[in-house]
Write a structure and sequence with these properties.
Chain A is an alpha+beta fold and about 120 residues long. Chain A has four helices and six strands. With about 450 residues, chain B is of the alpha+beta class. Helix content of chain B is about 30%, strand content about 25%. The relative contact order of chain B is 0.14. Classes of the chains: A alpha+beta (about 120), B alpha+beta (about 450). The interface between A and B is large, with 40 and 51 residues.
C-alpha cells in the first residue's frame, strides 16, 4: 500500500518517539485450561505498566499473535485491581483435556508464549 | 451462645491426586492450624473411580488419602485439627469406612467422628432426569446428553460448602465428600467457624476466593511462579499455603515458618488468574465471586492480606461433571540429533503420515509436535532461532480415533523409522507406544432442586 507523504513522515516521527518492548520485560503470566479454551492471565510487573498492557495488548492483537495456534476467538477481561488482563483463547487445545494430542494439552505455557509479544510504546 | 474464635487457619494439603505426599504431614506438624483441606478430584478422576467401584463395590475413592491419613491421624487427634477432603470420589461412605478402620488400627477407636457428604452421584438417575426434561446439554457444544448416553461412565453434580459446614456442625472431625467443589472444602470450615449465613454473599465470595487460592497447593506459595522465579528460596522445602481468616471475610495467606517458597502479591496474583474465565463471575454452588473486587497487600514477609471481596447470589443451577467413553489415542516419539535435527524430524513426520495414508488408516486427528523447537510456542518460538544449529529435536506424533484398530496399527509404524527413515535417530528405549482409552469430559448444568446433598456421621 502506498502511503501519502505526510502519513509516511508521521510514521517516521512516531518511530522516533516510540520503542519496542517485549511483554516479558513488563509482565508476568500464568495460564490454564477449561475444556478446549486456554486462559492467560497477564500481570504487570509494576502497576505503572498496567496502562500499557490495556492500551497495546488488545484481544485483536493477541488473536494475531496466536494466528495458526488457535481456532476460535480471543476474549479479554480487565482486572485493574490486580493490574492484570485475562485472555480466553478459544479452540486452543485440540479438543482439550484428555482428548487433546498436544504436548501442552492443558494450555500451561500459553502464558510465556504471550510474553514473546512485542509492542511499540511511546518513549 | 458459643464463643467464636477471632481467626481460623485452613491449610492446603493436596492440590490434586498425585500432589506431594509430604505436604499433609508438614502442614499438621509445621505450626498451628485448625483445618487441613485436601483436594483430590480432577474432572476425569471420577470416571476412573467409577470404573474401580464397578469392579469392587468397596472401592471408588482416593486410596492415597487413607495412606496419608494413617500417618497424621495421631497428630490431628492430639491437636484437634479437623480435615476436609473430597477423597470420597464415587464412594464417600466406603472411604469413611476405610478411614474408620485405619483409626482403630492406631488406637483411635471411638475417638474419631467422620462426616460423609454424598448425594452428588447422578449416574443411576440420568435416564429419569432426562425423561423429566433435564437434557444435560454440553455447556461447550450445546448437544444433549442423549447423544452419548450409552457411553456415559460417571455423572456427578458439584456440591458446595453447605453440607461440609453441616457435617462440621454435627461434630465431624474429618469430613469426606464426593464431588464437592475444591473451594467448598475451604469455605465450609469458614462458614462453620464464623457462623456465616449462606446468603452472606460477600463473606461467601471471600471464602470462595480463599479456597481458590489454596486449592492448587503450593501454586500460590512459590511453586510454578514466574515472577523472579530464580530468586524463590528453597523450593525443595516449599511451604504449602495456609488461609488465616477473620469473621469479617478478610484473610491472610501465610505458610509455616522455616519453609521454602514465597508468598507475595505476585505469587498470589498468579494463582488468582489461574483457570480464570470472566473474572466478574466466578460461579460456585455457594455464590458468585467478583474477582475484580479483590484487594491484595503485602502485610509482612510471606504474608499477603486479601480484602474487599464482593459477591452475588448463587444461581439456581449446579454444574454436573459427566465422563464418557470417547475413543482411543496413542503417542509415539523419536529423537533426532544435529545436524539438521528439526529437518530430519520433519522428514520423518512426512514419511510416517504418508505410510499411515497408504495403509488406508482413518484417524479423527493426527497431531505432530517438535519438542526442542516448536512444541510449546509453535511458530512464535522459531522467529529468532538458527534452526540448523538446534542440537536435538524430539518428534512426537499423536493419533486419535473412535476405533482402536487404526491406533494400534499406528503404534507399530514408529520403530521402523529408526532403520528405514532419516538418520541420527535415537530415544526409542521405551518401546512401542500403547493405545490408550480416552475418557472425555461433558460439562452440563442441572436445576439445583434436583440434587439433595446428604450428610451422615460414622464413628471410628
Amino acid at each position: 500500500m502506498k502511503r501519502r507523504r505526510s502519513g509516511g513522515q508521521k510514521a517516521k516521527a512516531a518511530v522516533r518517539r516510540s520503542k519496542t518492548v517485549r511483554l516479558v520485560d513488563i509482565a508476568h503470566a500464568r495460564s490454564g485450561d477449561k475444556g478446549d479454551t486456554a486462559n492467560v492471565g497477564l500481570i504487570a510487573l509494576k502497576p505503572v505498566y498496567y496502562p500499557l498492557l490495556v492500551e497495546h495488548v488488545t484481544a485483536a492483537r493477541v488473536a494475531r499473535h496466536f494466528k495458526g495456534m488457535i481456532t476460535g476467538k480471543v476474549e479479554r477481561f480487565e482486572l485493574p485491581n490486580l493490574h492484570a488482563l485475562n485472555f480466553l483463547l478459544h479452540g486452543a487445545l485440540d479438543g482439550g483435556g484428555t482428548i487433546s494430542l498436544k504436548t501442552d494439552a492443558q494450555g500451561k505455557v500459553f502464558s510465556t508464549a504471550l510474553l514473546r509479544m512485542e509492542i511499540e510504546v511511546r518513549k | 451462645m458459643t464463643s467464636r474464635p477471632a481467626t481460623v487457619r485452613v491449610a492446603g494439603g493436596q492440590g490434586f491426586w498425585g500432589d506431594w505426599l509430604e505436604a499433609p504431614y508438614r502442614q499438621v506438624t509445621g505450626g498451628p492450624i485448625d483445618y487441613l483441606m485436601m483436594d483430590y478430584l480432577a474432572e476425569v478422576t471420577m470416571s476412573i473411580l467409577q470404573k474401580q467401584k464397578s469392579r469392587d463395590p468397596a472401592r471408588g475413592y482416593a486410596t492415597d488419602f487413607i495412606t496419608q491419613m494413617e500417618r497424621i491421624l495421631p497428630i490431628i487427634a492430639e491437636r484437634g485439627i479437623k480435615v476436609t477432603a473430597n477423597a470420597g470420589g464415587v464412594n464417600a461412605r466406603g472411604c469413611a469406612m476405610a478411614l474408620a478402620e485405619a483409626a482403630r488400627q492406631v488406637g483411635l477407636g471411638g475417638k474419631l467422628t467422620i462426616g460423609v457428604v454424598s448425594g452428588d452421584g447422578l449416574l443411576g438417575r440420568l435416564d429419569g432426569l432426562m425423561a423429566r426434561g433435564h437434557p444435560l446439554k454440553n455447556l461447550d457444544t450445546g448437544r444433549p446428553l442423549q447423544d452419548v448416553r450409552d457411553r456415559v461412565l460417571s455423572a456427578n453434580a458439584y456440591l458446595g460448602a453447605g453440607p461440609v459446614a453441616l457435617a462440621l456442625q454435627r461434630g465431624a472431625q474429618v469430613v469426606i465428600t464426593g464431588r464437592v467443589t475444591d473451594t467448598g472444602l475451604t469455605l465450609g470450615p469458614l462458614m462453620h467457624t464464623f457462623g456465616w449465613a449462606p446468603e452472606a454473599w460477600d463473606r461467601i465470595a471471600a471464602g470462595t476466593v480463599a479456597g481458590h487460592i489454596i486449592e492448587c497447593g503450593a501454586q500460590c506459595s512459590g511453586g510454578n511462579c514466574l515472577k523472579n522465579w530464580k530468586r524463590i528460596p528453597d523450593l525443595a522445602n516449599v511451604g504449602y499455603p495456609i488461609v488465616e481468616a477473620r469473621a469479617d471475610g478478610t484473610f491472610d495467606l501465610i505458610k509455616h515458618p522455616g519453609t521454602g517458597g514465597r508468598i507475595d502479591v505476585a505469587s498470589v496474583t498468579e494463582q488468582l488468574v489461574y483457570e480464570m474465565g470472566d473474572p466478574r463471575e466466578y460461579i460456585t454452588p455457594d455464590g458468585v465471586a467478583d474477582f475484580t473486587t479483590i484487594q491484595l497487600a503485602q502485610a509482612g514477609r510471606d504474608r499477603v492480606r486479601v480484602s474487599g471481596v464482593k459477591g452475588k447470589p448463587a444461581t439456581d443451577k449446579l454444574k454436573v461433571s459427566i465422563a464418557y467413553f470417547y475413543g482411543y489415542k496413542a503417542v509415539g516419539t523419536l529423537v533426532y540429533a544435529w545436524p539438521d535435527a528439526l529437518e530430519k524430524a520433519k522428514a520423518a513426520d512426512r514419511i510416517l503420515r504418508q505410510r499411515l495414508k497408504d495403509l488406508g488408516l482413518e484417524f479423527e486427528a493426527i497431531h505432530t509436535d517438535f519438542l526442542g523447537a516448536s512444541a510449546t510456542h509453535g511458530p512464535l518460538a522459531l522467529k529468532d532461532v538458527d534452526v540448523a544449529a538446534i542440537p536435538e529435536v524430539q518428534l512426537r506424533v499423536g493419533v486419535r480415533a473412535r476405533d482402536e484398530k487404526p491406533v494400534d496399527r499406528f503404534t507399530r509404524e514408529i520403530a521402523p523409522l529408526i532403520l528405514n527413515g532419516p538418520p541420527s535417530v535415537t530415544g526409542f528405549a521405551g518401546g512401542r507406544p500403547k493405545p490408550e482409552e480416552i475418557v472425555a469430559y461433558w460439562p452440563a448444568l442441572i436445576d439445583k432442586r434436583m440434587v439433595e446433598p446428604a450428610v451422615e456421621l460414622i464413628e471410628a
